[in-house]
Amino acid sequence: MSRLWSIIPKSFRHSTLGVVLTIFLRAILNFVGIATLIPVLILIIDSDNIGSTGYLSWLYNALNFSSYQQFALAICVGVIVILLIKNIAILGLYRWERDYIYSLYKHLSTRLYRGYYHEGLGFVKRSNTAILNRNINVVSLTFVTGVLKPIATILGEGLLMVLIFIALLLYSPAVAVITIALFMPIVVIFYLMMRRRLNDIGERENVAQRTKGRIVAETFRGYADIEVGGAFAMNYKRFNDAIDEVVMLRKQHSSISMLPQIFTEVGLAVGFTLLIILSISGTTEDLTLLLGILAIAGVRLLPSLRSIMASWSSIRYNRYTIDTLAESSYNEYSDDINTTERIDFKHSIELRNIGFGFDDATTPLLNDLSLTIGKGERVGIKGASGAGKTTLFNLILGLYRPTAGAIYIDGEVLCEDNIRKWQNSIGYVSQSVFITDGSLVENIAFGIEANDVDYNRINEVIGLSDLKAFVSSLPNGVHTHIGEQGSKISGGQRQRIGIARALYKNPDILLFDEATSSLDDHTEENINNAISKISESNHSLTIVVIAHRESSLEYCDRIITLQ
Q: pTM score, two decimals?
């Protein structure tokens, strides 16, 4: 329970207690609804002896009824009104509970999304993105609908059953004893039979769903390699195996879900049989009335018991979500993720005795590295594969944190408080520019709302990145959809879009991480010329370039070689 409570955000805990209160109120209202049916039952079974029934006799005389027929009609109308009011109140309470459940789902899902993001690039690279995706989009929803809602159901229906049992005990101990003797063994047997089975089914399905999601994501992400390599048949078989596992487990869970109904209906039939046997043996009187009371109680007890057993089944089946969310419980982030503030870069970037290594690495990638890059400099970085060039960029970008030493921007340490502002001052072009599934303008003004796009700046950076001819060839100009991951454009166009995106921010520093390494010589030369022209047109712009060919660094003021 403590593990479950730790998942509930602090901002929701007062509301949680309020929801518990609404659950108890609903249980009491449901009990009132059942209690109001007793007078109707007496009127049906024993209408000639209303005067001998204590509270009905008092009510008849207090309201000065002239005939039992009028009194019976008034009782029925009163019961209908009470049931209508009761159900309207229950709908209102349920609406509150519903709003709480789905607000919590939204909060948990967005908290996970943001929490995973804030873990940084190292965490993302270590993780399976299909699992992260499932945790954010599926596990959060399953937790609130498959664990919290069933807990609420158990609380509410459990309290209702207790109230019904107390009422039965006060009215007819024989019926109460029969009821508890029948239904308690059903619950105990179901619990003992299914406890471990349901937990195992839930965990196995979670693994199968993760596997299925990973296979689908990898199939489309690596389509070309899979098709040419003839690997689809193996992927298809693995997908089929995973979905067969899911189907088999769902079938088993569906079969188990039918057991509560079978158990409870048989139990009620046995209860009627026992009452008849007791009546024949002379142990109890007023069989008709007792059977009626048991029937009314049973009509409400059966669904309650089924709901409790089905809810318990759901909790066991979805228990894995508690562990997943507890292990992925992230802090509430209060920083402004949309801040447009930036560091006014004036003097230098200084790396002092920088060290960095991944957690699972035996030796650090960078060790005691010191480097100063002045404002307006054009610096080239080269080195063998694995020398740490991209890692160095990720440190400057604030995507990695140094394990030793520190980075200074104009003498101020780069830290959590100013990384976002520093990144707002940087334009970055990677080896394979990320293209979102949208239009050209959406990919250039990346992360900018449509109404906030500066089209004068768009046209300016299109010219600077040598994209004018390409834009002219598009059917809808900058509003043309360029395909998921840039499927409708060439490698050179992709990189030029990356340059345009970097320039749109009007950055103080441009970082190019082997931005031309995957291009042919002619396209690479054109893009290098474009970068050189950008530098010449703005002498205060700092440019740092990683390149695998020294010819790509000819326009640099100096070249640094990483060993």
A: 0.71
